[in-house]
């Protein structure tokens, strides 16, 4: 499946430091990034990876990781990836599929990728896995690119 | 749009106390219910309502309520509503549409409703509003009814 | 779950003939409406119903009604319902859940309803049933209201 | 994003003729494949491509290709791809995003890919483009693998 030209151009500039700068800025002022203890692993144009450890205060009534925590981690990864070109954007909607339950103590890895970006619309996919283990959830997010810089000049 | 027979039968038993008992049990052992400060407002067969106040540690990088917090609140409401007949079920997947941004301090109200339930499958809708204000998000969840009691006998 | 003010206002004008006029106009110039043999049953503000009989040329490889035919019928009902105020709109996206397989000869009934409409965005739900029988599919559509009249002046 | 082991194993056997045999069998008994004039371009384990020309009887009320036709083409491609290991499966649900309108006479190309497959569940993505032109729609389908052979022994 072909990626958009935008991704291909961006990929050519994969060593550009600004993607990571934008993501570090976003992390610094994001309540969830901090309260969930999220960690940035990698950030290149059109793709980024984050990690998070499941805690007892993130569980559902059956003692496994709450589906909302999966979604939040994926939505953050998608949002950061879309905003990382320093063009402000917001999630318009998303869908998630739950595949496996993670437990307290599991380290989750999320990877988000740009699938399509054109004008004011972007589609991004995220995949959550247990570190070194199976895929536990798949998310597709629809982004609306509202414009303006993410990092203040 | 007609509801399933199951809902109609359940509605006939709307004064039954067990729905609220199941939901109170689920709340008592749910990490997110407690860490997010969620409050149960109403619980009848096929429908329930919850409230939650947006806190600073629930924001995104633009200072508004993180979309993952909306989703988590809705997923919890859907899960509690589906499980409230004391038949164990899990979310198989869901989709969300983000309509408006809520701010720190806003009180969110979520209402979940059963739309369809047949065999091992259920479809539930949730709507999140700012208390006394506009709708901010719509969620549709697909539940898999795995069976067995929710509240241990 | 509350409907938008727009629906409530529209409901007050439920006897207005223009909803049906817009839908009849749309039907008259819609290739799928004609090639699928769709029939308009009812059209009031914020809600409409259509019928269609499953034919042999609408089947999948297992001999039952193709899921794409379900989707097409629901998307048409949603689109007609959203456009029926004579304000041009297009489907931005949709999701479908398949519940039961219909067979050749079955008469399908679809009912679409407005759930939310504000500014340029609308959310509409459709439910497909076999006439006099069970629900076979649920669809949620996201509409973008692009504006301009549907019926030329 | 990593593919499932199943896809990787399947990819190793990419020259196996049976994938194409299953797809040709499915095409031979599929009402929509024939009535929509769909053509099989390529079929390897975990991926396949089809083409279809938009006709006047496939249009919406604005004279462009009906969204239901996009969905049908994508659903067929996803279903054929998932069934192509000769293990019977059905679409449980799907979501679609509409990006651009195609016109009568446009030749649509759809490519479906396996994203995840484990036990009875599979996730497949499809992308529709105008031949030699832009992407017009993205679809994600959830498959339920019900088992049993597709091609009778």
Report on this model:
The structure is a homotetramer of 153-residue chains. Chain A is α+β, with helices and mostly antiparallel strands and 153 residues long. Chain A contains four helices and six strands; from the N terminus they run H-H-H-E-E-H-E-E-E-E. Chain A has one domain (5-145): Thiol Ester Dehydrase, Chain A (Roll). Chain A has helices spanning 5-12, 18-28, 31-35, 67-83; strands at residues 39-44, 47-53, 89-98, 107-118, 121-130, 135-145. The first copy, chain A, has a six-stranded antiparallel sheet. Chain A is globular and about 45 Å long. Chains A and B meet through helix 2, helix 3, helix 4 and strand 3 of A and helix 2, helix 3, helix 4 and strand 3 of B. Strand 3 of chain C pairs antiparallel with strand 3 (89-98) of chain D.
Which terms summarize this structure?
homotetramer, 153 residues, alpha+beta, Thiol Ester Dehydrase, Chain A, 6 strands, 27% helix
SSE blueprint and pairings:
The structure is a homotetramer of 153-residue chains.
Chain A: H1 5-12, H2 18-28, H3 31-35, E1 39-44, E2 47-53, H4 67-83, E3 89-98, E4 107-118, E5 121-130, E6 135-145
Antiparallel strand pairs in A: 1-2, 2-4, 3-6, 4-5, 5-6
